[in-house]
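Entry:
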Amino acid sequence: MEFIGSLIDRLGEAVFYEVDMFGSSIGLIVVWLAIPMVFFTFYLGFINLRGMGQGIRAIRGKFAREGGEGEMTQFQALSTALSGTVGLGNIAGVAVALALGGPGAIFWMFIIGWFAMTLKFSEVTLGMKYREELPDGTILGGPMYTLRNGLAARGKPLLGKWMGGLYAFFAMFAALPMFQVNQSFSQASTAFNLSQDSALAYGIILAIAAAIVIFGSARWLGRVTAAIVPTMGFVYLGGIFIILAVGFADIPAAIMVIIADAFTGQAAGGGAVGAFVVGMRRAVFSTEAGTGSSVMAHVHARTKEPVSEGMVALLEPFIDTVVICTLGGIALVVAGTWLDPNLEDIAITSQAFANVAPWMPYVLAAAVILFAYSTICAWGFYGSQAWGYLFGSSKGSTSIYKIVFVALLPAGAVLDLGTVISFVDSAFFLMAIPNVIALYIFAPELKAMLKDYQARRMAKD
């Protein structure tokens, strides 16, 4: 076990290796994800801005009459993808950004979130094109299928199979969200005065609730997330809006501080550059753009137009980072709790809620539990898709992974995760390596698909 632990530590050091840039340290994996965000935004003519209107119309069902294979509506697919990305990172991540990068980090999270929209569009559009449909109507898709089928079409089937397998291997382990169980119990225990003796019971209850969804079909997952995601967004943002309403007079000053600090700040990471680095890192982590994870949800959308679902997908970072993270950041600056040296991570947000009213931490606890639950459900589905690619997609085969997945969840509430979290986090970001390579390989094809779709859409409209 000591040998395995040493290997995992070395893996984590390699994945999160940092280099000095302009006086600040930044992880190479963050650079690996940030560069294609900017590249594809320019390469595709700012589709992140031009495609928002069509994405909104698509989730409202405007193009539903066009049909196509799939197990979810486009709104359900977006909700499922959001349930995997909107999570504790939106609550604790913003607080971390403020503590390390100052208010200016919120500005850069906002900016990078816009660029992340293009990367999400790109990976989902390609995933839709190269998805597969089984005889019973089940849809298989994700970056592993994009790599396998896309490279096979270019005469490189073996390379595609192995690169797809590499992605699926990392995704299978990255899908274990025990951190979500651990942190949601931490907030619940604080709000409801639960003892550590309740941890196992909490984990078991959460695992049972997740199993109900995870062992269902993609259609069932879509229905559940379509109900939960708007609810959890309403609960969390409701608390944020109360904080902003109480400190309404301070909002203009807070926004000015955020903007000014982005260029002149005294961030711990190195002034204005440090604010940019921290903001970029948190935005990359928050959106998951470039890791390809949410592609496994979007490919189940009922549409025959890959580009249409890509435009729905670009709304994901907009909601997740541009809206939720930015509003949360402004609220924390207004509350001022990020300045307390005795607070860190989610405690900064919790104290901001408590400053408004004693009952507000209960609101945060409810949001955290909903965030954790929806994330667990989505990642259980993602992990089973990766397992299916490697070991067969039959119901019996994927059930093996689901059983192990659910059985491991209670451990997240009671164990010191340490090495496990290091391995899961490493696997998560390793997914970005084959996925981003695929985006570069298929870039010309992606651009041609977008041009063709827009021409046909203009002709119809």
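The longest helix spans residues 360-391.
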